[in-house]
Design brief:
The protein has 3 helices and no strands. It is mostly helical.
């Protein structure tokens, strides 16, 4: 199903952008103006076809982050650092249990 949706979106983008390119005035413009006009056509087509997402940050809510989680993450980072040092000290050889 998702491949069908992808094909339909791609077809819509091509059709819309082709129509806008044909309608555009291309006479007597320099390279920068041409590039800006093409960029605007592509951005407008993408906006019409795909819409806009709501920005800024998607992960602003941190209700799950508490002291217990912070301690667990800190402990894991310490253990990873020690593991990394041991691995480097052993010349990237196999990891042996202590």
């Amino acid at each position: 199903m998702s491949s069908l949706i992808s094909i339909l979106v791609n077809t819509n983008i091509v059709c819309c952008s082709n129509d806008k390119v044909v309608e555009a005035e291309w006479k007597y413009i320099d390279v920068n103006e041409h590039w800006q006009q093409m960029k605007n056509i592509m951005m407008d087509t993408a906006h019409v076809t795909c819409g806009l997402s709501k920005s800024p940050c998607r992960h602003k809510e941190t209700w799950w982050w508490n002291e217990e989680v912070a301690e667990a993450v800190g402990e894991r980072k310490k253990k990873y650092g020690k593991w990394k040092e041991r691995k480097i000290d052993r010349g990237m050889g196999g990891v042996q249990e202590e």
